[in-house]
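Exercise 7. Given the components listed, write out the predicted structure of the assembled complex. Treat all entries as one system.
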Amino acid sequence: MEKSKTHPIFSVSDFIAIVNQTLEYAYPNIEIEGEVASFKVNQGKFIFFDIKDKDGSIGCFMTVWQLRVPIEDGMKVVVSATPKLTKWGKFSLTVKSVRPSGEGALKKSFEILKSKLEDEGLFLQERKRLLPLIPQYIAVISSTGAAGYADFIKIVNERWGGVKIDVANVQVQGLAAPDQIIKAIDFFNQKYILPEALIIIRGGGSADDLSAFNDEPLVRSIAGSRIPTLVGVGHETDESLADLVADVRASTPSNAAQILVPDKFEIIRAVKVQVSSLLPRILQSIDQQKKNISAELIDVIKLIEKAVDEQSMGVLNIKSVITQLNPNRVLARGYAMIRGIIKNDSIIEIETNKAIIKAEVKNVIIK
Amino acid sequence: MSSLNKTIKEKTVELTKLVEWFDSDDFNLETSIDKFKEAEKLADEIEKDLLSLKNEINVIKQKFDSEG
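Answer.
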């Protein structure tokens, strides 16, 4: 740099460097909101687009790896960038990140990425893995200061015990959130002893707050997790791509806790019902035994009665025979009984039904 | 898997087997009272174990921000 009497004289490249230093000092990181125009990707690596409003337009440059959400012409975005004067003297923004701005743009970006990931099969039911029935070791990724995390832990503690819970405290909204969550996912996936389930939770918030969970690298990281994932983000009506790609989706952090662990009080109740159902089984068996014994007793009594009847009949028959053989019955029929020796001139005794007669035997003729 | 939880699992399996015995052909009145008392004891132990279990929560010290 030469110096004139009043002003320094720069070379072109020095001046560009000075301007860039000044810009970097004055605007180390600016955020500009505008509409995307002339969006194009060169060589699959470099992205060029303009950001504009009704009165102005600025050229933007970034790499494809920096673009975390899909954008297209007409979409309203906020770029985080550093202003720069190129060596060709063209003013542009070197973009560090870009995010959709406003509900319409967020929705549009969401739909584009959803469709892309859907085409890749990332949301297919066949990819979904089951969570353990009763986990012993789980990992949670959330902001430990957030209400959603507090709800999750409270409900898990109420419902079940004996679980080892490792928690990664990360930002769950804002530009830094997706990378922090990805690092936490990698951290747990690289552990020697893997957790049985990886739970990613965040409470409710605006669409912009929840947009971190529509970040493409994050969604892919969840899809690539070796550990089965359970994602509970926002409220019941919220849908994020992280939800869709997870093995199991919970509608809220509280719901995630309900899905993850059983309710010990329900188990205790079920166990008690099981045991109390055994008593009627015993009582029923006792009743049956009583009925069987009664029936057997009745059979025995019948057999005894039958035997007694048979015996009685025999006795009656004998009694009848004996009655028939009674000499008085013979005498009653008109016969007489003779006692004594039957020979001529002997005295014999003749007994009839009504009298006993002494008689002399005469004229005995031997038959 | 914690040994305490494993015990609950074992006790639950044992209880299930006992309950199944009551519906099986092996059921007989003579041994049913003893089995019932055994089931009652198991249920009480399961309840006690479940109510005494606490979760172990450990917040990882590692930072997950860019510099971490």
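Discussion: The mean pLDDT of chain B is 85. Helices of chain B lie at 3-23, 29-52.
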